[in-house]
Fold these 2 entries.
Entry 1:
Amino acid sequence: MTRDSVLITLAGQPNCGKSTVFNALTGASQHVANYPGVTVEKMAGRYNYDGLKVEVVDLPGTYSLTSYSLEERVTRGFLLAEKPSIVVNVVDAANLTRNLYLTLQLLEMEIPLVVDLNMMDVAHRRGIRIDPEKLARHLGASVVQTAIKTGRGKEALLSAISRAGRSSSAHQTMRIDYGPMEPFIREITARLISDAPEAADYPVRWLAVKIMEGDAEALKYIRGKLTNPNSFLEFAAKKRQDFESQFEELPTRYMAYRRYAHAESIGKACVVTKTGNRRPMSDKVDQVVCNRFLGPMILVGVLYLLYYLSIVQGYNLTNYTWPLLAKIRNITAALAPSPGFIEIPLLRAFSLWFVDSINALLNYIPIFFILFSLIAILEDSGYMPRMAFILDRLFSKFGLHGSSTLPMVLGGIYVGGCAVPAVMSTKGIPDERSRLATILIIPLLNCLAKVPLYILLINIYFVGHKGMAMFFISTISLLMVLPIAKILTLTVLKKKPTAPFIMEMPPYHLPTFRGVLGRAVERVRLFVRKIITIVAAVAVVIFVLLQFPGLGHERKAYYAGQKERTVSAFYSKIQGTPYAEQLQGENLMKLVLYYDEYKSKKMGVKGKEASRALNREFQERNPGFFKIVKPGRDKIAKKVNRAFKRLFKARKKLLREIRKEKIDNSFLGRVGRFLVPVTQYVGFDWKVNVALLSAFAAKESSVATLGALYDQGETGAGTLEERMHEGETGFTSLHALALMLFMVLYPPCIATAIMVKIQSGSIRWMLFSMVYPMCLGILVATLVFSGGSALGLSGTEAMVAFFGLSLGTTVLMGFVRKSPDLN
Amino acid sequence: MTLDQMKPGNECRIKRLMIHDQLGQRLLDMGVYPGLTLKVIRNAPLEDPMEVCLGGFFVSLRHDEAKYVEVSLS
Ligand SMILES: Nc1nc2c(ncn2[C@@H]2O[C@H](COP(=O)(O)OP(=O)(O)OP(=O)(O)O)[C@@H](O)[C@H]2O)c(=O)[nH]1
Ligand SMILES: [Mg+2]
């Protein structure tokens, strides 16, 4: 019988190159990285070869096939349930013996196997020669050699798969000789056949072996299959006990040792190692990179470089990309219905708001691109496990994990990170409890979007101590995050499973340019697609909350009256001039827009030449208007110009007042006022409340909203700093400190919250990640504000006191023993 | 003697795994089995964890985990 479509599965130990093989076969771009445990969910793809349709599934790497860990259960469950036609067992040729330990277990499951000896290039370099024919004979499976990263051997692999896929001949099964355990296995097999003939979904010898091991899943299966399982289970338990007392070894252990012995003997027969020196380069590098003194210094250097290149330089890069985004906004502004004298059409307001919200995020793309490229380099090189190695001691004291380093750096361990990629990168943390703890604390680190508010407040209220205040705010988040992580792991996360730390330290690889670039592009694309849609949706909601219910009839009439007065004042001023005729009716609004455009364009041009060209352009477009805008020596034109400028300013002021009143009156504004009875203890008035509420969508909004609320009109002169200072006489540095700390502990933005949901796999954790920082923020801000006021502390004094308190707590929490349960 | 007492540079032979739960299984599956010779490469800069070479590959583990591996100096 020949088949024309087959399902194949890639299985193998972690970091042996399964996903690279998957990508090579299917042309996909699955995540590949040089550390174990990269693939955590199964992935499917397909290809055609020689008329054979092949569906490929990439599985997480596992060292073994017990039912102890989740990945192993997933992998084994998939193999048993889906019964793939072929398993391609990817093997790290440079570590044959340990890899064969898994191969043997796969063979025991009696699935047709194609063994792919991958990483042949590495094995060659280390002087390891493998005899593939001999290996194939020993295993009873076909063996191909590949160095798939360079593309070598792909053809051979493809044809081996298609050969195995087309032949349906029962393949020969290899047996591991379990020696003195064999009689036990035979007895169980016999009993299985008589008691449960329908258990034949699974190979019977394999089932017997698993029952002898006391494998939880196998026993569960039996319980479900037999009508009266108890006598069978008792029988099996008795057999295990007999073995244990007879040979003084647990059956599981014994069987694992036998498998290793078998793997070793195959290795001895098929492998020739020429040199003893195993990985000279990697070892030399590690002597420096993991050195007691140099190691931490290099680590700090690498992290600093990561931060400097992506956050600092990436931010500089946005100076070049921003004009592009600004152009999009201008085009939108030109296409949208044009504004009236004081009436802004809703569609216009909405489209601009929408573009602004999206632009705020798109603006980060250069940063993300650099960041993702650098992470790809770190991942490919093999430095990540070293980072975990160096910092594990420190982090494990607080319930975190060595692998929490990268997510925390990305999140902004000092200043300026972004929680979205940070939460994304927690995938690599093998310990579930630490992983959740890391996910939950990342939003409390200093992401880029929090920084503008810090800078604003520090510039107003800590003028004399700017450096100190900046240092405080940069380090305080780390000091708060560590004890919080510890408390979380001791309380809500107590029941979550932890995992042993034991981790393979892979040899270093040189990252390839194409690999790094491809990965960065792919991740940016994913980020944009996932996040932008959400942010767009939220932008709509916030827009509605800020726009409605809008102004009442009375206020609208009032503003219409104001408009009338301003306009008629203008007309009476210019009466009798030749321009009066020209500016009747709609033409006045045209002039306003003309002037607006001229002014904004003028701001964009530099140099005399360009400015002259701009003048020429506007003169050609409307010579009459241009005369008013640029009157030169003409007396009458000058007079009209003065009157017009007054009108223009008056309009701006009216628009600003309307906007402010709208926000005051909006749903969000009402909520802000509603919260005042609570927030007074924290020191926030309704304006601050509104700013903080608007920060839910994106934290940058806090400063933007404050900007709108503190707009004092007039000529628009004066920075927000000055305006806020004048506008809030009751606001002291203590208020500012409370506000900054509240911002540190601010709940994650929507984009981050969605990422938390994806990575934690549950809405409950997402909600928790939003609620607990808020409670904590109110607590801390109240402590600082009410406590500070009661003690009569200034903002600076309270800052020092709070820093001391946090430092003390952190040190103390470091000494609290973690709960001893290692399971 | 147990593995956590070994110093960098020590070579030893694994005698026994003294733990039977998940950690024991994990050690076993990572290639820590009786009869194998291993070499302690280094301790991390903060002492913990440690890195050992097992035949052809390198593994890092915490001292808390290494204390369940009984070894004899060779
Ligand atoms: N030198 C060399 N490197 C390879 C080869 N195949 C894969 N790699 C590299 O090995 C590392 C691991 O590859 P992955 O494909 O992520 O391994 P995996 O088996 O999917 O790993 P997990 O998902 O963690 O189980 C990556 O850095 C690859 O670039 C090869 O044939 N030769
Ligand atoms: Mg993978």
Entry 2:
Amino acid sequence: MTDNTAQTDNGPVLAADGRPLKASLRKALRAQKIRAMMLIAPLLLFIVVTFIAPIADMLFRSVENQIVGNTLPETTATLESWDFANGEPPDEAVFEALYYDMFLAAEARRHTRVGSRLNYEETGMSSLFRGTGRSLDDLGDDYFDVFEGVDPIWEEAGFWYDFMGAGDGDAEAGGLIDAQRDRLSALLDEPVAGDVGFVPDAEIAAILPRTADAYAAFAAYTALVDEDVVAEEEPWEAVFTALATDLRRDGAGEAIAAYSGDGAAELQAAYEARDQLPDISYTEFFIEEDEDWGSLDTWGTIHAYSPSFTPGYFLTAIDMRLTPEGISAQPENLQIYGTLFGRTLFMSMVIMGSCILLGYPIAFLLANLPMRTSNLLLILVLLPFWTSLLVRTSAWKVLLQQQGVINDLLVWIGLVADDNRLQLINNQTGTIIAMTHILLPFMILPLYSVMQTIPPSYMRAAKSLGATDWTAFWRVYFPNSVPGIGAGCILVFILSIGYYITPELVGGETGTFISNRIAYHISDSLNWGLAAALGSILLAVVLVLYWAYDKLVGIDNVKLG
Amino acid sequence: MNASSGSDNFVVFDRVQKSYDGVELVVKDLNLAIGRGEFLTMLGPSGSGKTTCLMMLAGFETATHGEILLDGKPINNIPPHKRGIGMVFQNYALFPHMTIGENLSFPLEVRNIGKSEREEKVKRALEMVQMNDYQGRRPAQLSGGQQQRIALARALVFEPELVLMDEPLGALDKQLREHMQFEITKLAHELGITTVYVTHDQTEALTMSDRVAVFDDGRIQQLAAPDELYEQPQNSFVAQFIGENNTLMGTVSKIDGDQAEVTLDDGEVIDTKPVNVNKVGDRTLVSIRPERVEFNKERLTPGAHTIKAEVLEFIYMGDIYRTRLRVAGSDDFFIKTRNAPDQRRLKPGERIEIGWRAQDCRALDA
Ligand SMILES: Nc1ncnc2c1ncn2[C@@H]1O[C@H](COP(=O)(O)OP(=O)(O)OP(=O)(O)O)[C@@H](O)[C@H]1O
Ligand SMILES: [Mg+2]
């Protein structure tokens, strides 16, 4: 055999330049591929940015729950070891952490957000957080009065600044500031950077750990968010609460006595006056503010929603919920999503069915009438496309309402009594009628395009072979038009399952779809996580149906044009 | 050769006319009788109304005027599926969603034939076209020629007495077409079915048919057996449409029984056979087949007229030589000679005398 590609014995086929043919081919193809990729790159980028990225964002939002951990970092950390099953509210340490977390959050006006978030899971959380946030200052004020009585110098911003370490603090204690900076970034959902102009003193931080912490938080917030000079600002009430807590701590006396740095004398004086401090525990303070802080459910909810990622939204979306005891069904009166999903699927099926029933004969006519007539008919089919969706839907309102054209006509004919007019709108009937009309072209066009490709000779052949008109249609024409039905069904069903505007306008209470609920959560209740979870489930349902359809009918049997 | 007499008329077109738009007649006054068991071909240029005739016979078009009789009974009011006519379509029209077996058993199913009998018949039909192994395949998995055979088998499986074929071989390559031509005629004669075959390939028409109906302009121009059609065309359309042909214009100068002399426009005189000229002075188109032209004087009838010709081109075609001549001012006069050992090759520029037997040269309508 003579061949112009050289073949070494059993070796790879070589190209004319002696390199393996496969490699040459790959090289030749790669250049082509790169060129092709560059051609589609702008479009690809566009799709990624406008389509894939939002979907990924949506999927992420549906499980994301960082807000609790970001707003109440210390509380959630301390609460981790707490066990709901014990039947006891958490101990003092948790409340202490909550106080400082809340204080900072309240300063940043972020505590209401975590309140709203938790309110999705347990009603009352929102007002609990809002109310408590307002009165956090009270506790610190009480202590402040005592310290000021002992020595008015405690009121001075400059004294505090020097006392806590000023510019001469050391590096290790500086870690406190970095920690606060990170915490602020998380709390405010945006990177916070800059120089605080303050580093706590390691010695003071060891003697008064809580105070150093609270002051560092104050300093970081003042410098980085308020953009004020720390040395000129009076510390927050929380700093005084922290000082009181530190002074009362066991063994504080010896450490203070041994301290000889800035403000040692004032600290000693304050320590000696510690018995004058009002004796209120953090727990008492919170429960006094709102007795819900003592309730197990409050803490159970916070505990359950502490992790950064939560199945909570998805559970809500399938009428379950994440309670402190674990996953359980939603109370009966709150189970709406199952019904809504079921209704959406059912009604989409009905709409799809009506579209087949109405669309098939029209498509058949389009494909089989003489050119001129079928062109006119096609224009009529396409006409709705050139009218605004809103106008079409509103037209249905006019037609279908109880005093509307259709009811008038039926009454006039005598089919229905005047005092018993049909309810055709603001219910499922209305949605089905209007949606069938709006989605009909999406059934007709693929059907038409498939039917056009069925040669008329098939029907003739069937008839010449002895089949009646009906047999010829059913055994020969119809099977050949199935790909069109398939394509139409997919289009109509998927469009309808996510339809929003028409059910919203004509669906009333009983004719709305899941998408209306999603819209509600996006724009009214602002529960984006739940909206995202519902959307993700909808996406999954569509994908599953698509997959099932592929298994049953085969997606390559579908012709869209 | 089967009935060409018309004594046993199975299909009759009686003064049939057809118009699609009410303005123009596509079929004008069609009269045609097809004998039982006959293989009749409708041959004609595109748009001459062949398919229309076939469709009227099959029942997919109705005649605007006139009557079509099948086995003596008018069929104008019988719907297509009750006519029991087998049909092979140009694009085969095999049902793509059915296997070959299902395609073949379809006509039997709609006739409510039992399963075992159905299988038996399908098997036999497939054997007939030598396609037994393909029962489970789908039409798309077959080659053009194979699909063609299946279409044929499907049209025959329910044992119709009449089979219509509309350019069934149009999509096949030359070799396969010739092979299928042979098989179709063989089958048709073996089974004794009446066949109406439509084509615009004249070789196909000549080789396959008992009789050929040449269509033009909605009329049958000539209905005759292939040899008659080729050798004795009745008018200039048929003469030019069938086979290769040389034509010369002239005026009849003398008629003597079945021989006439025609004076060509450059004054030369030739011998012809008058076909549709009847008096001296008629303008006529004279037609002569290239293979009937003789330039070897010894072989010509003594006393026959000859005319001068100049060789323009010699074309070697293997089995034959084709030579282009200038005759009576026309540059496309061809002659064909067999490539035999004693045959002389003409050279361009050579001047020769050509002639023919009077009965080979037909004086037709102008
Ligand atoms: N359905 C129709 N409506 C209107 N005119 C038609 C129709 N079918 C055919 N014609 C016209 O009738 C004439 C004859 O058509 P027909 O199909 O019989 O030709 P044909 O001889 O089969 O040609 P071909 O060899 O190209 O198949 C043509 O002029 C055609 O334009
Ligand atoms: Mg035709």
